[in-house]
Amino acid sequence: MQENLAQHRALEQAAGFLKTAKSVLFITGAGISAESGLPTYRGLGGMYNNRLTEDGIPIETALAGVTLQRSPEVTWKYLVKLEERCRGAAFNPAHRVIANIERRWPRVWVLTQNIDGFHRDAGSKNVIEIHGNIHRVLCASCGFRQDVRDFSGIAIPPLCRRCGHKMRPDVVLFGEMLPPAAVTTLIAQMEQGFDLYFSIGTTSVFPYIRRPLEDAKSRGRFTVEINPEETEASSLVDVRISSGAVNALMRIWDLVTEA
């Protein structure tokens, strides 16, 4: 009973912060999509936790930028498997709550590590996909981007219909730099700052994911973490909700919108 009461108080605090906020940043990781059926593994599908791939190499090697350059067939083989996992799932009520908040609050942004595209599918428009989107391919030669919802129906590797060059997934592979446009947008939004910061379903191990919370702390802004487990961000936040994303965000939404 004591734990349930503490959890209820944390939810009420988070809802209270949200009611008065004019600007909100949601930082999301693999945990928010886990409830859509995607296993958590740095947002990459959970296919090979602590195991080698069938090619006898770590998944980090198979999905590395250098492997894509040297042996594109190897990287694409596992990208197809990854896209298939995402194809069989869809956004959940947690993604939908965030999209609803964006529609009703003056300024709301999402910084996501996930490459599944669920935030946009749910209706969010201000989304920084810092690791890219598995449902897009990119021509490294001319910059042409194309949406591809099903990798099983395309040539591997696909060829650009504009210039004929080999295309690559529009995601950040291991060992690669973050996309400049996404970084620029993140910096611009961080310079403005937010009234409220949510960290949801992420371990916050990457500095660029943890830094917004550190910035919020220095600015004296409110912060909330939603995660069943303690993380790198737990010591930084004002309110910690030990729960899955769907349950917590739906309860917060109910508290905010109740008459």
Rounded radius of gyration (Å): 19 Å
Structure annotation, total helices:
10
Overall number of structural domains: 2
Q: Supply the helix-strand structural class.
A: alpha/beta
Question: Which CATH architecture of the largest domain is right?
Answer: 3-Layer(aba) Sandwich
Q: Report how far the terminal alpha carbons are from each other.
A: 26 Å
**CATH homologous superfamily annotation of the largest domain:** TPP-binding domain
> Which overall shape is indicated by the principal axes computed on the Cα atoms?
elongated
Top-tier CATH class of the largest domain: Alpha Beta
Fraction in beta strands: 15-25%
Biggest sheet overview: 6 strands, parallel
Outline the structure in words.
The chain has 259 residues and is an alpha/beta fold. It has 2 domains: 158 residues, Rossmann fold, CATH 3.40.50.1220; 88 residues, SIR2/SIRT2 'Small Domain' (2-Layer Sandwich), CATH 3.30.1600. Helix content is 41%, strand content 17%. The chain is built from 10 helices and 9 strands. The strands form 2 sheets. The protein has a 6-stranded parallel beta sheet, with helices on both faces. A 3-stranded antiparallel beta sheet has the order 5-4-6, covered by helices on one side. Strand 2, helix 7 and strand 3 form a beta-alpha-beta unit. The radius of gyration is 19 Å and the shape is elongated. The relative contact order is 0.18. About 2% of the residues have low confidence.
